[in-house]
Amino acid sequence: MPRKRHTEEQVIGVLKEADAGFAVDELCRKHGISITTFYKWKAKFGGMEISDARKLRALEDENRKLKKLVADQALELMVTKEVLSKNF
Q1: Which of 37, 61, 71, 84 could bond 33 through an S-S bridge, CB–CB 3.0 to 4.6 Å?
Q2: Burial class (CB in 10 A: 0-12, 13-18, 19+), 14
């Protein structure tokens, strides 16, 4: 079965249905997700509103970009040190 990416809105919608009293196994079957996926979503997005989830996504994206930038700079610094050490 191919993996399907759910939006934050869909995830929070499923969690709100569970909060409203629907059975977890029925919700999972209805939305085509595993129970494990449901509880991972609940751990990550539980109690959030859609705007909170969007902010979280933006922060995760920014964090990913900053980590890449730091890694690139560290690599450049390492290469520069290596070149300078060979010249002397």
Answers
A1: 37
A2: buried
In a 3-state reduction of DSSP, which class is residue 11?
helix
Q: List the chain domain ranges.
A: 1-48, 50-88
What is the C-alpha separation between 79 and 71, in angstroms, rounded? Answer: 12
pLDDT tens across 31-55, in order? 999 999 999 999 999 888 989 988 9
Determine how many CB atoms are found less than 10 A away from the CB of residue 24: 14
Record the pTM.
0.65
Alpha helices in 4-34 (DSSP H): 8-19, 24-31
CATH architecture assignment, domain 1-48: Orthogonal Bundle (1.10)
